[in-house]
Design brief:
By secondary structure, the chain is mostly helical. It has 9 helices and no strands. It is globular.
Length: about 210
């Protein structure tokens, strides 16, 4: 919640009110993908806890396989939001907000990575102090990158900052999670889909200025 509001606060200080409005609009559309993931995790979290407590040693393998379809659904929703960002923003907002299109696309990539941050390994292991420390690290990274990027690029800088934090922090978070309760992810499928998703959205971002 702090980071969600802090981005806007930093834009307000370091950039213009117009940039704040554009970012706020883009963030609202992109946030639908995170809201979808939050609703979806109410389906699988109870099952994961059950497997963790039932089979403390071998549960990680069944959990990894069980989570793959939910990862598909989450990534697909992020993909739809990113790919159709231009159509959605163009149809539903006045021209002054059309600068939010790229922001929606970038934030959709950032929210896609949050699927891995929703897994409850550290809570199951009782490592709440470690979890708090990791969250504080994430906040500090976000603050530092926001200060550097918003000052130079405005609202786009805030979106890139959120994506950069996701790309750096997610692997760190996953290392600690796997250390305390190992989930046997179907890595090949996940990396292939993430590669397709990121290359598609990045390709669209770079191609947009040349497309009618």
């Amino acid at each position: 919640v702090f980071m969600k509001q802090f981005d806007k606060y930093m834009i307000n200080i370091l950039s213009t009110l117009g940039q704040l409005g554009i970012y706020s609009m883009g963030e609202k559309f992109a946030y639908t993908s995170f809201a979808f993931m939050t609703a979806l995790d109410q389906v699988y979290v109870p099952h994961i806890y059950k497997e963790m407590f039932k089979d403390k040693e071998g549960g990680g393998k069944s959990i990894g396989k069980y989570l793959t379809p939910f990862f598909y659904c989450s990534l697909f929703f992020c993909f739809i939001v990113a790919v159709f960002a231009e159509e959605i923003i163009t149809l539903l907002t006045p021209p002054a907000y059309h600068g939010a299109i790229n922001i929606v696309m970038i934030l959709s990539m950032a929210y896609a990575l949050m699927f891995f941050g929703k897994q409850s390994q550290l809570l199951y292991a009782g490592k709440t102090k470690l979890l708090a420390a990791l969250m504080i690290l994430s906040v500090l990274m976000n603050m530092g990158l926001n200060f550097m990027l918003i000052n130079r690029f405005g609202a786009i800088g805030a979106a890139v900052s959120a994506l950069a934090v996701g790309l750096i922090f997610t692997p760190i978070y996953m290392v600690f999670c796997q250390k305390h309760y190992r989930i046997e992810w179907e890595q090949t499928k996940i990396f292939i889909l993430l590669g397709f998703f990121f290359s598609s959205v990045c390709g669209l971002l770079f191609a947009r200025p040349q497309l009618s």
